[in-house]
Amino acid sequence: NTRVLTGITTSGTPHLGNYVGAIRPAIQASLEKNVDAFFFLADYHALIKCEDADRIARSRLEIAATWLAAGLDPERVTFYRQSDVPEIPELCWMLTCVTAKGLMNRAHAYKASVDQNVAKNVEPDDGITMGLFSYPILMAADILMFNAHKVPVGRDQTQHLEMARDIAQRFNHLFGQGKDFFVLPEAVIAEDVATLPGLDGRKMSKSYNNTVPLFEGGARALKAAVARIVTDSRGPGEPKDAEASHLYLIYKAFAQQAETAAFRQALSAGMSWGDAKQTLCERIEQELGPMRANYEDLMAHPARIEEILQEGARKARAIATPFIHELRQAVGLRTLA
Ligand code: TYM
User: Fold this and answer.
1) Does the pLDDT at position 10 exceed 90?
2) 316 C-alpha to center of ligand 1: Å?
3) What value does the mean pLDDT take over residues 59-76?
4) Domains along the chain?
5) Does residue 7's CB lie within 6 angstroms of at least one atom of ligand 1?
6) ipTM score here?
7) CA of 18 to the centre of ligand 1 (A)
8) Does residue 150 sit in helix, strand or coil?
9) Would you say the CB of residue 99 lies under 6 angstroms from ligand 1?
10) What residues form DSSP beta bridges with 9?
11) CA distances from 110 to 64, 107, 160, 311 (A)
């Protein structure tokens, strides 16, 4: 069977970018035949960006409810919390010991932080933790722990997947003795929506504060966010260039080809931005509306979610525990009887 795996960092409220880049394609993949799917809440990753314990707990609940409301079937999928699987940080350490520091020096997220510091004229590593620096190794451990073949992600994760392959290869080479412990994972990127833009046209991201929330705040919050999408100043009746508008790109991520073509036509025929926003809202709501009631119900019953996650942890560890023993043996640690 093909193993499909993906995770979301529990440091904020899930947004449309998470949905079209990861959640929707991952759930579709999990419904295919001969697929074993592993979806998880990356709460160890959240510690890298967030020092607010309550926010992490809240985000974890929101993200769990989002996955389930979007159609994840916990009977079919192994759905778990990263921090319930202690084999993952253990594997992370083994991988850390074979990963070149130079590889991490090249990570985009780390380099971006260094560049910002340089621009601000402070020490290059100012405020950068070892967690941020070695973040891609933890992500590699997530993926390699379950030997995932395919990892549905947004384009922003491409480099992390390349690094996971590098690290896997290195480990196989050092310890495999002809046997490959790890398969080399592949990123699966939905090309049409590889990077969903946010309100201001930059990548939709918690860190840019330009997101449209998926379910939180209800249809009203969705509407309010859509109203804040930045457009050009062309008025009603003036032709608009759809391809140059991120509002159009967001619409495209939710609509069928024919609808998208009609929307583009209407814009070039002078549809007002106000009407365009209304149309966008209705289209998104058509897809998300039916899931939202389920989301709200789940949020009101956290014990139900907890039970699902504990069962998921049990299933995940049934795979992780024997595998980590094998790896312990390979690197020369005491093997647990
Ligand atoms: P995170 O939490 O930032 O984002 C979760 C997923 O959402 C995708 N995404 C987007 N896709 C398209 N357009 C956007 N604007 C957009 N914003 C976010 C991301 O690409 C990602 O797929 N390191 C990961 C979490 C992680 C992980 C893993 C993923 C930890 N371990 C193992 C896969 C496999 C992250 O921070 O994603």
Assistant:
1) yes
2) 20
3) 98
4) 2-196+301-331 (3.40.50.620), 215-296 (1.10.240.10)
5) yes
6) 0.99
7) 6
8) strand
9) no
10) 42
11) 28, 5, 12, 35
